[in-house]
């Protein structure tokens, strides 16, 4: 159905490229009157719902905007603390938009190096001789596919569980990396990839893979 | 197709039960260390997956595979975790793991007044029933060589 995002991790576990191809909208906006019937808490510098689910608002969803203005971490656009702001009856009625918190670039870096270690542990805990690390990680919402090259760079693709043809796509991304990042004289190894041609070619191959692989036999 | 091994952890990370069938390679560390490493990895995978997911999840993490084995994961609402390692040809084992929980663990451990919950399982009846259950699975067969 869809390819969500692509990560490239260097051999030390550092994130050198990330691209969000498709971010599904799982958001709900609602107007509340004074006693807010949801329990909010601050988690990872975000205000998230910790209790109470209603009208598409789920536990774990973060406050994305208040009265149509995007919030900034745990503060409103005017710099007031969200939790304090919502305690004040004079601010009601208030319209709050909830949704899954989008990952910040810091979190993406952290998750990439976290996967790097999980990959290594996966191979250490193998009951069979000569196992690689995690190549495919499956959840009910997405599948993560990982391809590690001989030189240790990992290409990671997050896709819909029904999307097929990801193995081919991972090798294609490796090819694009070799052609447009490595052959670029201004690119230094192990450093973040900032090459326009790499971007363009990656986007077009994601499009092709999405079209070709939709509803294919379960990958 | 074959089953390599099976771990049962409780919600606090204690390994309640471990058994293995066709395991070719040991992790090279003591069993206690291995259980800690396994639980730690699953704990991290769970938090990794919940942060990484672009959508809301229902069951969360289900399985992962490497080039040589596949790890199936099942977690009950009480936080008990059942992990089974098989080879790559085995399809989703969610219902099998659920069956281990509902027909073996609940029957022979929860309903046994002598079994203390939260401590490694001592019950021989459970161990032998689990062994015959796993051996009877359609994908349990020792590969040639």
UniProtKB/TrEMBL annotation, chain A:
InterPro entries of this UniProt entry? Longin-like_dom_sf (IPR011012), TRAPPC (IPR007233)
What is one process in the GO biological process aspect for this record?
endoplasmic reticulum to Golgi vesicle-mediated transport
Q: Respond yes or no to whether keyword Nucleotide-binding is given for this record.
A: no
Quote any Pfam family the record assigns.
Sybindin
Q: What does the UniProt keyword field contain?
A: Endoplasmic reticulum, ER-Golgi transport, Golgi apparatus, Transport
Task: State a GO cellular component annotated for this protein.
Answer: endoplasmic reticulum
Say yes or no: keyword Cell wall biogenesis/degradation present: no
This molecule's function is given as:
Core component of the TRAPP complexes which has a function of guanine nucleotide exchange factor activity for Rab1 GTPase. Plays a role in vesicular transport from endoplasmic reticulum to Golgi and autophagy. May play a role in dendrite postsynaptic membrane trafficking.
Record text on subunit structure and interactions:
Component of the multisubunit TRAPP (transport protein particle) complex, which includes at least TRAPPC2, TRAPPC2L, TRAPPC3, TRAPPC3L, TRAPPC4, TRAPPC5, TRAPPC8, TRAPPC9, TRAPPC10, TRAPPC11 and TRAPPC12. Interacts with SDC2.
Q: Extract the PANTHER family matched here.
A: TRAFFICKING PROTEIN PARTICLE COMPLEX SUBUNIT (PTHR23249), TRAFFICKING PROTEIN PARTICLE COMPLEX SUBUNIT 4 (PTHR23249:SF15)
Regarding protein family, the annotation reads: Belongs to the TRAPP small subunits family. TRAPPC4 subfamily.
Write the protein's name.
Trafficking protein particle complex subunit
Organism of origin: Denticeps clupeoides (denticle herring)
Lineage summary:
Eukaryota, Metazoa, Chordata, Craniata, Vertebrata
Automatic annotation (TrEMBL), chain B:
Q: Whom does it interact with, and what assembly results?
A: Part of the multisubunit transport protein particle (TRAPP) complex. The heterodimer TRAPPC6B-TRAPPC3 interacts with TRAPPC1 likely providing a core for TRAPP complex formation.
PANTHER family in UniProt: TRAFFICKING PROTEIN PARTICLE COMPLEX SUBUNIT, TRAFFICKING PROTEIN PARTICLE COMPLEX SUBUNIT 1
SMART domains from the entry? Sybindin
Extent of the signal sequence: none
Task: Give a yes or no for keyword Lipid biosynthesis in this entry.
Answer: no
Role, per record = May play a role in vesicular transport from endoplasmic reticulum to Golgi.
The record's subcellular locations are: Endoplasmic reticulum; Golgi apparatus, cis-Golgi network
Its gene name is: TRAPPC1
Could you tell me what this protein is called?
Trafficking protein particle complex subunit
Could you tell me the keywords of this UniProt record?
A: Endoplasmic reticulum, ER-Golgi transport, Golgi apparatus, Transport
Similarity section:
Belongs to the TRAPP small subunits family. BET5 subfamily.
Q: Which InterPro entries match?
A: Longin-like_dom_sf, TRAPPC
Q: Which GO terms describe its cellular component?
A: endoplasmic reticulum; Golgi apparatus; TRAPP complex
Species source reads: Denticeps clupeoides (denticle herring)
Return any one Pfam family short name.
Answer: Sybindin
Q: Per the UniProt entry, what is one GO biological process?
A: endoplasmic reticulum to Golgi vesicle-mediated transport
Q: What's the domain of life for this entry?
A: Eukaryota
